[in-house]
Amino acid sequence: MTTATHDPSIETVSDSAWCTSTPRRGTAGGLRSVGTALDVLECFAMDSTLGVSDVARRLGVAKSTAHRVLTTLAGRGFVEQDASGSYRLGLHLYELGMLSHARNGLRHVALPVMQAVADQTGHTVNLGVPDGADVVFVERIESVDGVRILGHTGRRQPAHCTSSGVVIAAFNPGVDRERRHAGFPPKAKGTIRRVEDWDRALTDVRRRGHAALHSGSFTDASSVAVPIRVHGQAVGSISVLGPTPLIEPDMRRVVPLLTAAANRIAKQYSA
To answer: What is d(CA 6, CA 4) in angstroms, rounded to the nearest whole number?
Structure first.
């Protein structure tokens, strides 16, 4: 098992749950009022508390509209108002989110396999699934050495900023297409920034079966990922993440473990 001392320069990163580089989903063909309510909820991905004026300004709507939507959402428990009059996400939204999390079949299959990889490597292990142009980490087992990089934030990342996103896009045309449409804005010094580099990375993954990214999302952090493929298409990824000095020298040992884990998850998930 990899051993390491805590690096004070690698701490839990304060990062928004929402990818500002990713276009928000449209509401073409849907109800405008529902779209507005969802836009209001998404405002809270950037800030824990917001006032009526804050929401109105961000969405470009009248304060009266923002107030009506917030009042309706509060009545259903999706937001709640504190003593100062500001709003925050409500417990009912948390309940629904936990139900979605608990009912994720891939997560149920992957969790014991992830734990085995964590025990063998000592690194943080992530399960990523695609969502549009992004990858969302639906499960995480933290490193035993106390080095925390993501903590409870950073659950959603643009696909081009993570090894998980790259390996999924290499075997999932939909993710590849969505990321190309969204572009490749830089996030850290190792972020893929050009379509030519994206093409090269996907070709490399298809040849080698895994991806490694250094300082893709966070400076001096590295990750290695392998796709979880069902009927040839990537439905997720399993990866390890940690400070670059720990991950880089351990890649030769880690990649076969991740490959075996991904194959086991895919076999059980598709059974």
So the answer is: 7
